[in-house]
Amino acid sequence: MSTATDTPEATTAGPAPARKGGPGARARQEQVTAAGFLAPALILCGVLLYAPFLYTAYLSLTEFNGLGDPEFVGVAKYTELFDDPNIVQSMLNTVIWVVGTLVLPVGLGLLIAVLAHGLKGSFWYRLPFLLPYAISGIAVGVIFSFILQTNGALTQAMEFLHLPFADSRWLLDWPLNTFVMIAAATWQGAGVNALLFGVGLQSIPTEPIEAAKVDGATGWSLFKNITWPMLAPMTTVVVGLSIVGSLKTFDIVWGMTQGGPGRVSETLAITMYKQSFMLNDYGLGAAVALLLTVVTVGASLLYLRRQLAPAREF
């Protein structure tokens, strides 16, 4: 006989209120909040990085000696780049630096890492090659200029031992001066490349190496077909850093020859500095700086795109 009675909550409760927005609205709100926190840092980076680049691009289109107002001359400074034999020589030297630092510091670093890999206490074998990296480029230039200058330490040692080429003018004749400066850069940079390659070798799993040895692979065959392909990620890093560093070479050249004698051993970075701050031709200096920036970024992107293309295909 008894019937269920409705509770006050049951009789008065209506449909649940709809929530404002949804997951999409909350995600957008979080993005707006995150953008608000990131905005100051992005603005600061934009001001410190892009504003000077844009101003340099503007100066490259002007005639400006640091006094008065820049005079707009269009692309005249870029035309002058390729008409000036000193700047063309600087471009050639920069190319030699890129090739030389890929062959010597990278190649020697790889050789040191491979020979030391697997040896007990291999770190101590690499340490003597790593120590020069702690010395600044200017200091390296000063050290090697003392060794290689006319009647310097190397010449005197070669004359004492009656070795050939003792009368070579190491820092005075081109391209010999560029080659010996690359050798100085090799002395400084081979150790850090060996360290990086050593890290890459340690990250390679042992199973493929052991399987290849079981199949009879040894020595050069083992390195070429197994080790080298598996070392590709670290090789990409080392070669990429080498390309960027060689394109911007300044300190060792300045410490050894300052681009001389005359201007035969200048790199683009040295030319940019001299045109801007010694010859007061800020327009031409800015054009060299912009050319160097475009070449550096373009070479880096081209290399990385080529190296990473196989990874994207998978």
Automatic annotation (TrEMBL):
Residues 1-20 have a biased composition (Low complexity). It is found in: Cell membrane. The keyword Lyase does not apply. Its main location: membrane. The chain crosses the membrane at residues 34-55, 95-115, 127-148, 179-201, 222-244, 282-304. Keywords: Cell membrane, Membrane, Transmembrane, Transmembrane helix, Transport. It is a multi-pass membrane protein. The keyword Lipid biosynthesis does not apply. Residues 1-25 are annotated as: Disordered. It comes from the Bacteria. Residues 91-303 form the ABC transmembrane type-1 domain. Belongs to the binding-protein-dependent transport system permease family. PANTHER family: ABC TRANSPORTER PERMEASE PROTEIN, INNER MEMBRANE ABC TRANSPORTER PERMEASE PROTEIN YCJO. This is Sugar ABC transporter permease.
